[in-house]
Amino acid sequence: MQNNDYFKSDEFLELLHKYEEARRNDSSVFFDLQDFNDLIEYYNAEEHADIAEQVVDTALTFYPGASYPLSFKAKMSIWRDHNIKDANYWAEQISDKQSTDYYYIQGEILLAENKPQESDNYLSAKLLDVSLDEYEDFILDVAQLFLYYNEAELSKKWISMSNLKDDPDYIDLKGNLAIIQGNYHDAEKLFDSLIDDAPYDSTLWNRLAAMQLLNNDAESSINSSDFSLAIDPSDTDAMLNKANALSSIGNHEDALKLYTKYHELKPEDEMGEILIGHTYSRLGKYEEALRHLKHALSSVSKHHSALFLFHDILMIYSKMGDYQGATAFIKELPLSNMLSESDLCLLNAHLVCTAGHPEEAYNEFQKAIKLCDDIEDVLMKITITALDDCPSQGYRVLVDYISEHQDTIHGWSHLTLLCKKLGLDDEAKKAEAEARKRNPIEARQILDEDITQY
Questions:
Q1: pLDDT at residue 442 in the model
Q2: Which of 274, 368, 410, 431 could tie 342 with a disulfide, CB 3.0–4.6 Å?
Q3: Phi/psi zone of residue 413: left (φ > 0), alpha (ψ -120 to 50 degrees), beta?
Q4: For residues 149, 410, 445 and 281, what is the CA-based torsion angle, rounded to 10 degrees?
Q5: Neighbours of 124 (CB within 10 A)
Q6: Handedness of CA 284, 391, 307, 272 (dihedral sign)
């Protein structure tokens, strides 16, 4: 795995330029396998998984059976497609079954199957087969894998096995583990030590800022973002961190300026315009909010994000008291091309709830479940709608679903959020324990991150 400094080096930038030029000309290009691997890692880190997959496919035409490209395909099968069968298929295409990439993906598949102890046993056994020059990297990468799946104790175990106590990757892992365990003070000290050694690394300042905001320390987060922006005034991650911190303390005017600048620098990312719309709504400027959110809707890149935007737009109409405007908005759009029958039920649930008919919303939620093709997706959408509009009805729907499907791995994380919203703390703790035991991937995505981004 390459570090961020390599991706800023002249060597890599030249490689990137050659690949980008070939893409623009729609022509094939040949590189060494390591170069292809670096490009895959870079595009994935930049959240361009679609381009990363294009690189993977090109790499495999020249290097069939290559471990890193195939393990990337397996990972996408797990995280994006939630398809363990496909993940196993791609993993088994790897020619070198003694490569660390093969070991990692097999360990991850076990984690995705909710078998953390089996994963630990497998990877511990494979550690004996790892060469000395890969030994320490393997330990830290496995620790990172367990941390990613919220297996804090197993991650701690593997971190303790490392001899690289002064290595930045080791310190970084310790810091992330501290965050997962809620030890924000320890995490801040660890990130500060990294910054002491690399004071001009804006990535470190951005991560510190994000962690401080997570710890509800908006002032420190803003200061860290300012350091990052002093290093690179066009750092969009720093802009978002600072804007989010400003918004958290009610300074929506200054947050709006930064969201606007972010959108100017990254116009291809509809999230900028969505955040602008949300901020105008918080400022009570509903017409401006509608203008930006409707424009974002026209370019939204994820099908399921469209429903969240519909929901946000309908919420603004609700705040304006314009029920007729909300109804007209639904009728004037080609919803049949964008949304399923299940999605339309969810929109109807929002409308009837804001109109003061919560029991009808409950019925629409139930219909959405019956009509859906993807239960995981619809439960998330119900939760998003219910949290804002009718948490009691959403809670009832989740309880009904789990009662009818007692062996389900889905719904527990959603129930946790709704219990917390309703102040049912004991029930929330029980639901969260089930969520993390039955479906750690879903729990991580919903309980440890902002679910509105999915």
A1: 79
A2: 368
A3: alpha
A4: -170
A5: 14
A6: positive
Show Cβ contacts of residue 52 under 8 Å, excluding neighbours closer than 6 positions.
39, 40, 43, 44, 72
Contact 219, 250 (CB under 8 A): no
Q: Say if CB 77 and CB 87 are below 8 A apart.
A: yes
* 44 close to 80: Cβ distance less than 8 angstroms: no
- Token reading at 88: 């196993």
Question: Which amino acid, one-letter code, is at 332?
Answer: E
Average pLDDT estimate for 267-274:
90
How large is the C-alpha radius of gyration of the chain?
23
User: In sequence order, what E strands does 278-334 have?
Assistant: none
Contacts 24+ apart (CB under 8 A), 319-327: 319/281, 319/286, 320/286, 323/351, 323/354, 323/355, 326/351, 326/354, 327/351
Average pLDDT over the chain, rounded to an integer: 89
- Stretch 400-416: mean pLDDT: 92
Quote the Cα angle for 254-326-394, to 5°.
85
Closest CA to 199 of 231, 244, 162, 238: 231
Longest dimension (CA), the chain: 69
Average pLDDT (120-132) is 96
* C-alpha–C-alpha distance, residues 439 and 446, integer Å: 11
Report the C-alpha gap between 202 and 266 in whole angstroms. 18
**261, two tokens:** 């600048």
Contact 447, 435 (CB under 8 A): yes
pLDDT, tens digit (0-9, with 9 covering 90-100), for 347-360? 788 778 777 788 99
| Residue closest to 209 by CA, chosen among 188, 194, 189, 190 | 188
Residue 41 contacts residue 71 (beta carbons within 8 Å)? no
CB 155 within 8 A of CB 146: yes
